[in-house]
């Protein structure tokens, strides 16, 4: 792909008006890892859809968060969670396929369409700053990230060692800002979508979040061992103010993402 002849041919095609989906990075038939692999079929499908389907989000700015945050304990350890970033990235790609300019603030690097501008962060604090910096200009915001509720009060400069005679380690934690709630309190024209990952009382807990966080939509999904996090499918219930809960059948995250984007576009 990096070869000058290939680059010049690709440029020529683009000059002729041909739309080019860049290849993905990965292990190549030549026996080494580089940019040059065929992108995932999902990504190809969305790329084609981008130029064929109706584009309800044309001209709109969409801001999406994805993945689980990492809260540093010391130089080699952090507090994290099982979020893979698949749902948030699928939402970003679905919004791009619907014609939007998308900013994705993510803790995981997954393939995105060319219209998605990806910003990589690790901690909740970094995600907070990146989301708020892009909030004012956004028309639709989807907080799909699993943001850690707490972070260590101080980060140890050196690797924490076992202490002889003490078999417990006490970590002092402080609450992180709630990004979604902050945006809910600040919003003017933005349509705000949050997620609620719940192990119990799914709809009741998600309904409370809809109100508490000032969101226009909460996507509730059951999580637990082998469910929700790091899977390719999801079974979600969509909650909106003054509307009956919409329970969707289990579907691929890419499909759920398209439904979320379609419903949000209809309400904007
Ligand atoms: O309260 P809970 O973490 O379950 O709420 C989930 C929703 O709130 C998600 O949309 C998540 O991205 C968002 N959230 C946030 N900032 C936090 C915690 C959660 O924006 N500190």
How would you characterize this protein structure?
This protein is an alpha/beta fold. The chain has 2 domains: 30 residues, no CATH class; 198 residues, CoaB-like (Rossmann fold, 3-Layer(aba) Sandwich). It is 31% helix and 25% strand. It has 7 helices and 16 strands. The strands form 5 sheets. The chain has an 8-stranded mixed beta sheet with strand order 7-6-3-8-11-12-14-15, with helices on both faces. A two-stranded antiparallel sheet has the order 1-2. A hairpin with a 6-residue loop joins strand 14 and strand 15. The chain is globular, with a radius of gyration of 20 Å. The protein starts with a helix and ends with a helix. 35% of the residues are buried. The mean pLDDT is 91. The structure holds cytidine-5'-monophosphate. The site of cytidine-5'-monophosphate has 13 residues, from helix 5 and strand 11. Cytidine-5'-monophosphate (C5P) binds next to helix 5 and strand 11.
Rg over C-alpha atoms, rounded to the nearest angstrom = 20 Å
Question: What number of domains?
Answer: 2
N-to-C series of helices and strands: HEEHEEEHEEHEEEHEHEEEEEH
- End-to-end separation in angstroms reads 40 Å
Biggest β-sheet description: 8 strands, mixed
Query: Into which percent range does the helicity of residues fall?
Result: 25-40%
Question: What is the CATH domain class of the largest domain?
Answer: Alpha Beta
Strand line-up in the sheet with most strands: 7-6-3-8-11-12-14-15
Quick one: CATH superfamily of the largest domain?
CoaB-like
Low-confidence runs (pLDDT<50, min 5 residues)? none
Compute the number of helices. 7
The rough form would be described as globular
The average pLDDT is 91
| Number of strand segments | 16
Work out the oligomeric state of the chains in this entry. single chain
